[in-house]
Amino acid sequence: MDLPIRRLTTVVDDKFVEAGRPADRLLRKVAVVAVVPNPHVGRYVQDLSPMIEASREIGARMAEAALAAMGAHTAESYGKGGIVGLGGEQEHANALLTTTFANPFRDAIGDAPAWISSMTKVAAPGTPIDIPMNAKTDVYVRSHYDGMTLVLPDAPLPDEIALVFCLANRGRLNARVGGMSYAESVAALQKALQPA
Question: What percent of the chain has pLDDT over 90?
Fold first, then answer.
């Protein structure tokens, strides 16, 4: 199945101050959005595996754009999501957001075994979507629970799907609710990867 990307949008959000406190290191969040046709608009299809396989190439193109937008910053957290146009069903976005889609991102940013938070829905153009994010090393790193809110004024059309992947270079500014630190999660991951 061929799902050509009609549109690829990249959003970069840099934050320098939170609660009046300058950040020791800026928080860069990047969102990449790909709008693709929905091949199953208006009809029920039992086998969505062709969509899953087609998502690999879409993920690879989006990962390339996301890494370019991160610039010199290293990704520490991620999240994904999708909006299905009104002619489709929510499962169509989920079929395009499986591990097959996400693995190109994991490969590109490295050391990213953690589960990826996600959100999908069916909606009209201009509907906001909140993409939840968590640390790429371990989902239990509280400082990296964050997200991005995106609005696409003219997408997805009823016969389209908008796919979103987000990256961030650090956790929230002024994070202070305890739990495992990102450095501790990296050390635990490195230890787990060492030969026995």
Answer: 95
